[in-house]
Specification:
This protein is of the alpha+beta class. It contains 4 helices and 15 strands. The strands form 4 sheets. The protein has a 5-stranded antiparallel sheet. Helix 1 crosses helix 2 and helix 3 runs antiparallel to helix 4. The structure holds magnesium ion (2 copies).
């Protein structure tokens, strides 16, 4: 069942979302060659817990060991923070963060360049970010879940990038993952109609090559089958009486 949220509940989700947006800004200077992903995890956990009532929502979720997911290059999502995963100039690093603040969850992801990156990676990041913006802009009470995926498809069509179709966005609220699923592909006008009070995590993931994914040996890290690079951008948004509102934006 889709849980619609009140204005007050949306405000509480936005407060957690602001913690994530601020965290991403703070982390930018730490994402550089030589940094390891466990260090980033520790920084993020401390930062989140420094806000009263806030905790990392991913820690322990389905048994995930970290506070944040850190996925490098061909890793799409669910990378586990590790001391021996050291960033190298030219890498791209996807960081996915969930915050639970006073029982309400928010979820956002961003892919960062590590130092100077090649032009294909840079274009991958720009295209993925743009597809998220277009998907967010499609959230309207006259639209359907299928319009969100169609907006991602429209943006990516004609580029050399592929949509990772097996991973989807989701409703969010008291739980990180709620109904409905929010696919990154779809037909306009299909699926559930969007309604005021819906809070959705929209999260397109694109790759430079194959759209197929496999799970790595640690049973968490999802990588592209052909090991091509991938990017991930995610916002938690609400459909309010004023239209769509991004809850994880700065
Ligand atoms: Mg996420
Ligand atoms: Mg999510």
């Amino acid at each position: 069942m889709i849980q619609l949220k009140t204005e007050r509940e949306i405000e509480m989700i936005a407060q957690g979302g602001l913690i994530i947006a601020t965290l991403f800004t703070e982390m930018k200077s730490l994402i550089s060659p030589g940094a390891d992903t466990a260090g980033l995890d520790i920084f993020a956990e401390k930062f989140i817990r420094s806000h009263e009532g806030a905790a990392p929502a991913f820690k322990g979720l389905y048994g995930f060991p970290g506070s944040i997911c850190v996925s490098i290059n061909e890793e799409v999502v669910h990378g586990i923070p590790r001391r021996d995963r050291v960033l190298v100039e030219g890498d791209i690093l996807s960081i996915d963060v969930g915050v639970r603040l006073n029982d309400w969850c928010s979820d956002s992801a961003w892919t960062f360049p590590v130092g100077e990156i090649d032009s294909q990676s840079s274009e991958l990041l720009a295209t993925t970010k743009e597809s998220l913006h277009r998907a967010v802009a499609s959230v309207d009470k006259n639209n359907y879940i299928g319009d969100i995926g169609a907006a991602v498809m429209d943006c990516v069509e004609g580029t050399k990038y592929s949509i990772i179709k097996d991973l989807v966005g989701h409703g969010i609220g008291r739980d990180v993952h709620e109904e409905p699923q929010v696919p990154n592909m779809g037909k306009p006008g299909s699926g559930v109609q969007l309604r005021e009070g819906m809070v959705l995590a929209i999260e397109p993931m694109l790759s430079c090559g194959s759209a197929e994914i496999v799970t790595g040996g640690d049973e968490w890290t999802v990588v592209t089958q052909d090991r091509s690079r991938s990017a991930h951008f995610e916002h938690t948004v609400a459909l309010t009486s004023q239209g769509v509102r991004v809850l994880t934006g700065a």
